[in-house]
Structures are given as C-alpha cells and as structure tokens.
Amino acid sequence: MFISKLKRLLSVSALLCAHLSLAQQKINVTPLVDPFLGTYIGNTLPGANTPFGMVKVGPDVAPPNNTTGYRADRSIVGFSHNHVSGTGGGARYGNVLVIPQVGPVTLGDTLAHKYNEYAKPGYYTVSLGKTHGDVRAELTSTDHAAVHRYTFYVLDKPKVREAYIYGSKTAQSFQANLLVDASAIINSKDYEVGKCDSARIAVTSSSTMEGVSHFSGGWGGDNPYTVYFAIAFNRPCLKSGTWTASALSAGSKQAQGKEVGAWATFKLQQDEQVEMRVGISYLSTANARKNLDEVSGRSFEEIRLQADQLWNNYLSKIKVEGGSAEQRSVFYTALYHTMVMPVRLEGNPWKSNTPHYWDFYTLWDTYRTVMPLHTLVLPQRQTEIVNTLIDIYKHRGWLPDAWTGGDYAMVQGGTSADVVIADAILKGLPGIDVQTAYEAIHKDATTPSDNPFKYGRYEEYFRLGYCSSNVKNGSSKTLEYAYDDFCVAQAALKLGKKEDYKRFMKQSENCFNLFNSATGFFWAKDDKGKWIDGFSPLFRKPDYWNGPYFYEGTPFSYTFYVAHQLNKLMDAHGGRAGFVKFLDSLFDGRHFELGNEPGFLTPYLYNYAGRSDKTAERVRYELAQFMPGNIGLPGQDDSGAMSGWYVFGAMGFYPCAGQDLYMVGSPLFTHTTLVLANGKTFEVIAPKTSAANKYVQKVWLNGKLLTKPWFTHSAIRNGGKLVLEMGPHPPKGLPMPR
Fold it and tell me: Which end of the chain has fewer surrounding CB within 10 Å, N or C?
C-alpha cells in the first residue's frame, strides 16, 4: 500500500516538474484564430478590432444581413467602423460607411463579387469586383481609429478575375473613388429598426473630411447616440463633393440631412493604393480628431502588427497543449470572441475618472462565462467593467442588465448585475468600491423598479413572492430574481451583514412558489395564485423571447435553473438517483439546448448528485458541437457567452457565477496554463485525456486529493495546479456531501 501511494505521488510530482517552464514559453496564437468561425449562426464579427476596442471596422453587406452587418453569401457594399458581435434582435451601428469604387461616382453601388477574403485578429481583407474595375480592401485598427488601405486596378478583361493574376491589366490611368456615407446604419430586421435622425459631413481640405451623425433605434430601445468622425487620406484627391439623398453635388464642401455623404476622387495608375484613416468618437469632434492621432505617423503594416501583438498578448493569457489542431483553433477563436465586447469608450460621459464601457449585450448572457473568465485572466479589465456598472448606478440610480448607446436597454433575465458584482466581491476582485457596489445590489433586492423593462425588478416579486402571468416572462424572471437574491446573500455574508444574509437567503427560496410538485416542473401562476392552464414541459411559442412565461427557454430547461436550491429540487425528484434520471430525460430526449444561456450550467449538475461521469459525457458531447467554419457555434455567440462556455469546458472546469465555486468537467487538453494577474499561474494537467479517456478518475489540487468535484477561487487565485487522472471508464464518482 505504501509503495503504491509513493509511486503515485512521485508520478504526480514528475508531471508537475515537467511543465514548470510552460508559463515562460513565448507562443504566437493569433494564427490559430479564425474570425469567420460562427459568422453564420453565431453572428460573430469578422472585422478588424483590438481587445475591447471601440472601433470595430468591418464589411457590411446588402440586406438581408445579420446584426454584425455581415453575411458570407451577400455582396459587400462597404466598410463601417462600429459593430457588435454575436448579438440577436434588431441591429445597431454600422456607421460611417466607406464605399470604394472604380469609374464614375455612383450612389447605391453594390459590389457584385468578392474573392480572396481573409481575416485574423486586427486585420481583414477582401477583393471586390465590378465592371469598371477591382478593389482590394485591407482594414486594421487601434482602440479608437481605423486604417483602410485600398488597392485599385482595372482589367483588360474585367469579367475574368484570373486575368489579373497573369498580368493582363490596363496600363492607362483611371479614376477611383472613396465614398463616405455619414448616415449609414445596419438594419437587419423589420422590427427594432435603427435610423439616422440627422447627419452632417464636411470636406475640409483635399485630403480631409469630418462630420457628426445622430442615430437611434435597434435592439433594446431608441437609445439615441452620436458618432463624431475625422478622416484623413494619405494623398490629396483630384476632386470631391457631397450628396443628399440621391442628389450628387460635385464641388460641394458640406451636406446635412438624414441621407448624406461625401466622396473623394483620385487619379491612379494600376495597383496604386489610397490609405484612409478614420478617428471615431462618441463624445465630440475634438475627440475624433484626437483619436485620429492614434494612427498618424505610422504605416498600415506597423498598426496591423501592433494590433496582432496586442491580441497575442491577451490570448496568451491561456496556453494549451494537446488536443487536435482543430480544437486548438476553436479554443483560441472562442477566447478571442470573449474579448470583443463590451467596448471601452475613450472617456467617461459624466467626466468622472472611472473608465466607461458600452455594449453590455447583455449581462444576462455574459455573467455566466465571460465575466468569470475575465476575473481569472484579465482581473484589471473586469475591475473596470464592474466599476462601470457601479458608476452607472451612481449617476443613473440603477444597475443595468444591458447598457448600449449610453443608456439602459431591455432587461433579458433578472437583475444580472447582482451576480456580476457578487462574483467580484466573493472572489476579492481588487479596486472596487465594495460598499457602493453592495448598496446597488441591495437596492435591486429590496426596491421595486419604476421601469423594470429597463432596470430593477417587478413589484409583484416583492408583493407576491413571484411574478405572475401578468408579467412578460414572469416565471423565468422569478427564477432569475431568486438566484440573484442568493448571490446578494453571499455578498452580504462576505461583508459581515448577517441579517441581510438571512433575509436574502429566505427570499432566494421564492423560486419554489412556482414549483408544481404534481408535475415536477416550474410553471406559471396568475396573481391570485392559480396555476395557468396549458402546461407542457416543452411549452413555448414561436417567438419564445417574447414570453409569455419563460424567456428563451422551456419549462424543461428552466427547471434546472436553481443552482442555489438543488438539494430541494433533488428531494422533489426522489433524491440523487431520481434527479439523475430526471436530468437524463432532458438530455436523452434531446430537450437540452446549449444555444441559450439558461442551460449553460446544466451538464455540470450531475456532479451534485455524485455522477461526474455523466457530466463528462454531456460536456464532451456539447464541446463537439463547436467546430471550425462559419457555422462553428451551436447558437448565437451573445457577446462571447457561447464561446466562453467552450473555453471553460475545454479547460476542464466551469464557474458557478456568483459563487466561489468551479465545477470539475472533462478537459480536452493535456495541459492548460492560465497566467494570472500577479504573474503566477494556474495549471490544469491531464496527460491521459483523449476522446476515449474522458472520465475523471481522481483530482489533485495543489498536491491534495479532492473528494468533491469542485474547488474554490480562493484556492487558485495565487496560482496552483489541478491534476486530473483520466480514464476510459466511469469512476465511482466524486460525491458532493449534502
């Protein structure tokens, strides 16, 4: 027995020593990222941007399109400077659209053919073809400015693109144009339509333009916002002008209205290039000019390389070994997606010193994966994000669930900022005004909102202990609020507020006010306490995001949305064995939906019933749904939320957001190293993991054998090693004591 234990300890020790130097290895991971992954279903953005950068310059296609403005099967009309990634609903942004042309200036010009499309972090390129000639577009960016490089050429045989490759090009000079549509905005649907309220553009010299545009609409509400822009070309133009609606005005220096733009014409030789630099601001024209300075005095290649290096620095916070080439590509692309949104503005609208972020799209999506991931590897960034939420509360009175265009947008679930802030408090995220943060979540948990569509909670929840069928998505909101209460209670306990802790723990039991013991599911009641007719475990309407009882999910999926009350739910289903059977019916009946966030934690719930083997099976199956290519993702990426699920799943552990808890899963990689803010590392080491060896047999954390399939943030915040012994058969389990 002693010899056996000694051999095992020596084996683990040797394994740890073999990997000591991994954190110091320099790696280049940006070539592994495919920005086109997920563009079809996931609505991801293939354009050029920096981590959390305000400017996201990329292609916009002719309608119909996605909320990113992009679809692979549509002709590109131009390239605009602000986009979202992974979102649904009505589109936003797509402003200050640049349209390259060869030949006469033409409005409404749709480039009919594209080829040689390619992207990597911080860089996008495509060639566009029309009758008059072809254009190669290249885009890169800094945080607040974009650089465009256009190469123009005319073919002897214009309709044969291959002729260019073999040098069959005209030797004559020709006219090329760059049009700037100051009123452009993406509209992807016939509802939540965005619009330009007014715009002004001015040609300020033969090589500069500037303007200001006012927009409103899109997902979440009107949320009016203003875009200021400053433009500089690298050469003077031959001539220029403006337009209003469909009327061109050659030589005009200024235009104003709801459909306005300007153009610059250049006389070029074959293969000549025009560079265009654009500074963007949401605060002022002066800021737009200042942001333009970010890209002055440096070449396109220097700026592109800077963006690449910046991305590599961010993505290298996590280093993986093992797995397949495809899995590594999907992993780093997913990690990339988690760092696209929200976006950091160049200043604070209230002139405070707190960094300000837009496009929380929404916390209901990102609190589960993206925010906990930032806390692990980008804690300084997460501190800024949490401080933005607190700053919004200080100036506007309530925490947001969604914040876009400088205002509250639609609440999707509950008061999800409560989970984000509780998570930060429990994990000791530095640099936060903890007292004001607690004040804000305490208000959510105690005070009815005057506008619960935008912030806070419905009054019924406090009066009835649940939201009735009178409230849109009232049942799922009740479950969300109850979990939010639990998270507020954990923050209260951490801060020594024992009476608040007791109060909010009791309030967190409100979810069971909608539990029907006769069916074993959560359902809906009217405001008199009567069950609503028409129950089905799979109930939902075609537009299920509009309710009536559950938001983006069925009673089946939401019944497991009580991570804080699982013992009670297990008891209702006959104990652990009955609960496992109930979970099996969800998965085996093909009712589980990873494509929407309420199900993110569900595959890990088997751990609570002592069946880590089932968690491994379900997690591995779902990880396999992610793959290279423009389909790539099993649902909308939702600001990186879906991608964040993959990142954690592939690493082998998953956060219970709002709790100091990570669940053990089934890693894809033999070795994963997370570089923490203090320079130390947390490593996940699973040398025998494979498609066959998916079951965790034993777990060591920092040299100690775990008897439970979880561990805490406090155990790894200063670095550590999680060693997983993997095998091809289910273990006896790592049961969680009740």
Answer: N
